[in-house]
Each structure stands twice: as structure tokens, then as C-alpha cells.
Amino acid sequence: MNLKACFLEQKEGARDQQLQARMEMMVGYVLQAGVLISGLFLAAGLAWRFLATGHLGFDFTLRGMNLYEFLVHDVHAAFSGAARPRLLISLGILVLLITPYVRVLSSMVYFAVVERNCKYTLFTGFVFAVLTYSLFLR
Amino acid sequence: MVSFWVLLLISLVAGFIGAMSGMGGGVVLIPALTLVGMDIKHAIAISIVSVIATSSGSASAYVRDHITNLKVGMFLEMFTILGALAGAAITIISSRRPLFLMFAFVLLGTWLALFLQSKEEWKPLAKVDRFSRWLELRGSYYDQAQQQQIVYEGGRAYFGGPLMFGAGLIAGLLGIGAGALKVLIHDLVMGLPPKVSTTTSNLIIGVTALAGTSVYLAAGYIDPGLAAPVILGVGAGAFIGTKVLVRLTNMAVRRFFLVVLLILGVEMLIRGIRG
Q: Which of A58, A100, B36, B104 is the most exposed place for a label (fewest CB within 10 A)?
């Protein structure tokens, strides 16, 4: 496929509809998995905290940090073995934040590799780049 | 310090009302959190994290029903995320009173829009411009109620896109999904059928909220200990809300929501004026 044709408007055919339906399933499962895993981490963190201390409330604030620092912070805490319920809570929030991010990334790859739609690869690529910038830079 | 159970209860109720009304949890959550003593900027930051959860949860179901238009969503997202980044940055440097006032304005605006809402039938756009055609914004879905395949094509994307920057701005600024505003743009400007516009706006809200969240996270406004019960509460409330929605009539839901919106709007207005 040459580059110019790739940017032209694509006529919808049976193949496109099938591709689109598959993409919809993919996006749906990415979102569902993210929300469920995040919810499990959060609930487990709260339950663990309750069993260990008899309290449910957590009282910790993050200093301003980006997603990358948040991740590093969590991994450090995991290896030091301290404050485990807290770690689960952080992981739950981390997974939640990554969920739409992964959705955008997987759509971008799908548009590029499977649908071969240059326009939408660029569009999702732009969204991905902006999110990456906002999540990882300060 | 707000107690865990109060947080959980408020979030459950906010998620429940948000899902039933289709407005999302933030509109109820933020005023309620400020009422129990939370700082409005922290309430906004926590709310926008929970918006990611509710929108992703419901979008995952809608997308697999093949009603959401992914291309419309992914085109418009480019505008909403930029708006959300700008909005969140403004909130962080803003003083608190304008935030209360803006929130009141949005609540009362939503109230007015709902109150004046007409029950017009959806009609396809007469003519679709070349730019929108190039964007491939067409689609079709099977409507259960009408028992037929609905074919549509989105138009006026050159106008809808920039308007979505504004919707994203409000979402980032106030920590809400701003779904009502997005649906309005989809309906009135781009000529999408109501079902497509609500489900597609749901998809966009998740990414928009993430953009806003990144700014609040970097500024240190996200408190995981408080966010955890809110995310779980709003999520559970929204889940129950969507189940109940099937059983309650539309009219009852609307009346109830109109009253809630009005009370919260007036309350935020008073707090904004008094300071």
C-alpha cells in the first residue's frame, strides 16, 4: 500500500466492518481488565489494612510526582517489604491510570498494523504522545 | 480528616446518582466532599481519578455492544486531552472562590439544559462536509427499541473538534466527566444519534480524565488513601445505578436529578459568593 492511498478516505467494506468489530472487542477487554484489576488491588489493600490494624482509613499523601516516579516509588516499597497494604492501594491507582493509556496505545498499534489506516494511526499517536508527555515529564 | 465510612457512603451515592442520570459521579461527588470539609481542589483531583474508573467501566460494555464510534472518539480525544491539561493547570493556580462559582455555573447550566430538553427525534444530517467524510465518521448499529439497523454519518467535525477542547477544559478544570457537554456537541453539531453520542462520549471521558489526573498527580493533589474508597464507592454505586436504571422510569429519574442538581448548584453558588 503506498503512502498516499493510506491517507485517502477509505471506503467501507465488509472487511473493514469486521476489523472494526474486532478492535471494539479489544478496546472493551482492555478497559474491563484494567478496571477489574485496579478494583481488586484497592479492595485487597483496604482489606489487608483492616485485618492488620483494625483501621480502614489510610492517611498518606503523595508528594507531587509523575507516573514514572510513582511507579519507581512503588517498586522500591515492594522490595523493602514495608507498608504492604499501602503498596496495594498505590498499585490499584497506578493500574487505573494506565488503563486508558494502554487503550490508546493498543488502538494505535491496531490502526497501524491491522487496519493500516495512516490518519487514525497519526491521531491516536498524537493522543499517545501528549499523554506520555503529561504522565512522564514534569 | 474525613472519615473512611463517610467518604465511602458519599461516593456510593454519587456514583449511583451519576449512573442513573447519565451525568457521571463528579457532579454530585465534588459538592458533597466539600460539604464534609474537603478542600475543593483535593475534591476535584480525587473526583477526576474516579471518573477514569466509571467511564472505563461503562465504556468497556458499550464498546462491545458495537454502538460506540471509535473513530469519532479517537478524533475528538485529540482536542479534549489538550483542554483537560489546560483546565487542570488553571485549577491548580486558581484561587478557590472562582472554582465554586464555575462549578455552580456548570451545575445550573446542566439543570437548565435538562429542564429545557426537548424530545426531538434524531434525523441524519442532510449533507456531510468533505473533511468529516475524509475522517470516516460513518457507522451503524442495531437499535433494540426500534428493531432496525440505524445508519449514520457524523459531520461538521471541523467545528465539533475545537468545541471539544472546551468540553475537555471544563472536565480538567472541575474534575468532572463533562459528559453532558460532549453529548450536546455530538448531537447538535455533529449530528450523531443519541445512543452513539452518549456511548462515544463515555469512551472519550476516560482519556480526558487521565490527562487531567496527570496534572493533579504532578502537583501532589492526589491522596491515595482518600482516593481508594472514593474509586471503589463511585464504581460500586455506578454499577448498582445502571442495574436500577432499567427498572425505573425515565421521568422519575429526571425529576429526581433535576432537584439534586438545583440544590447542589445553589449551594455551590452561595459558597462561591460568600467565599
A: B36
3 state DSSP class of A34 = helix
B188-234 pLDDT, tens per residue?
889 888 888 888 988 999 999 999 999 999 888 988 888 999 999 99
Give residue limits of the domains in chain A. 20-55+62-136
Burial A9-25 (b: 16+ CB within 10 A, else e): ebeeeeeeeebbeebbe
In this predicted structure, the answer to whether residue B107 has a pLDDT above a threshold of 80 is yes
The whole-number pLDDT of residue B27 equals 87
Q: How far is A26 from chain B, CA to nearest CA, in Å?
A: 9
* Chain B interface test: which of A27, A49, A102, A117 (most B C-beta within 10 Å): A27
Cβ–Cβ under 8 Å, residues A118 and A135: no
First to last CA, chain B: 21
Dist. CA B59–CA B210, nearest whole Å:
15
Give yes or no for B49 touching A (CB within 8 A). Answer: yes
CA B195, B70, A94: angle at the middle one, nearest 5?
Answer: 105
Grid cell 460494555 in the structure block, residue? B61
pLDDT tens digits along B145-185: 778 888 889 989 999 999 999 999 999 999 998 887 888 88
Q: Is A128 on the interface with B (CB under 8 A)?
A: no
The answer to whether B200 and B192 have CB atoms below 8 angstroms apart is: yes
Residue position matching grid coordinates 475524509: B134
| Helix (H) and strand (E) counts in chain A | 5, 0
Across the interface, do B4 and A56 touch by the CB < 8 Å criterion?
Answer: yes
CB contact under 8 A, B209 and A100: yes
d(CA A46, CA B53): 17
Only one residue has cell 456537541, namely B185
Q: Interface pTM (ipTM) of the complex?
A: 0.89
pLDDT tens, residue by residue, A26-40: 999 999 999 999 999
Q: Which of A8, A28, A29, A32 is nearest to A96 (CA)?
A: A32
Q: Phi/psi of residue B149, each to 5°?
A: -80, 125
Q: Which of B77, B137, B165 would best serve as a mutation to test chain A binding (most A beta carbons within 10 A)? A: B77
- Our CA angle for B187, B192, B193, nearest 5°, is 95
Bridge partners, B153 (sequence order): B138
Cβ atoms within 10 Å of A132's Cβ, excluding its own: 15
